[in-house]
Design a protein that fits this description.
Elements: H1 3-18, H2 25-32, H3 36-42, H4 46-71, H5 75-90, H6 95-104, H7 106-113, H8 120-134, H9 143-164, H10 168-183, H11 186-198
Length: about 200
């Protein structure tokens, strides 16, 4: 692993575990067993390091979602697996990560996720559009609005689970599944029921 990549991976692990504010260039150097000078030879400052980490992390997450799409048998299974994957992924993050990100680096993060390279919204938009074209989702839905709602819902999953201790199956069955049912055609409902029957643990994880 090259030095720059090693720093990104090591610093990213610390950010996820401890948040951004408490992690310094000194603590990163100590954790990685390298000099602080080596870090500055690869990154201008802490903000540059964070910017590169956020970009790398977002691209990796997008690629994970694309892999889910490729492995899923249909658009409904892909959407449900998205929610599950996000829940599992972000449950490993210290809440301080998100607090610090929002407080100190919100503009930086927004500028990164707004880029074409890491636009996860594009994936779900294409899935919804494909679902409409295939007759899985109703042609009457506004795809852009539906896409925004799904992403807000997935974000809210994490908040309800982590901040309020509401069990994951309850969130699935109360919020997400009824919404998916609401935009499904008869064909879509049959697929949704088949997905649930195929993997009953999907809603009880």
């Amino acid at each position: 692993m090259e030095t720059r990549e090693k720093i990104l991976v090591g610093a990213g692990t610390l950010f996820i575990k401890e948040g951004f504010k408490v992690i310094t260039m000194d603590s990163i150097a100590q954790a990685l067993g390298i000099s602080k000078r080596t870090i500055y030879e690869n990154f201008r400052d802490k903000q540059d390091l964070i910017s590169n980490f956020l970009l790398k992390n977002s691209i990796n997450h997008k690629n994970e979602l694309l892999e889910i799409v490729n492995k899923s048998e249909n658009v409904i299974e892909a959407l449900i697996q998205f929610g599950y994957h996000n829940k599992e992924t972000f449950s490993k993050y210290n809440p301080l990560y998100f607090e610090d990100l929002k407080k100190y680096y919100a503009e930086l993060f927004d500028s990164i996720i707004g880029g074409e390279q890491v636009g996860n919204n594009q994936i779900t938009y294409l899935i919804l559009k494909k679902g409409v074209n295939e007759g899985t989702f109703s042609k009457s839905i506004d795809i852009d609005v539906a896409n925004r709602f799904i992403h807000k819902t997935m974000d809210y999953f994490f908040k309800l689970d982590q901040d309020h201790g509401i069990p994951h199956p309850v969130i699935w069955q109360t919020i997400f599944v009824p919404y998916i049912k609401g935009i499904c055609t008869k064909k879509g409902l049959e697929i949704l029921n088949a997905v649930i029957q195929k993997d009953k643990n999907l809603l009880n994880c």
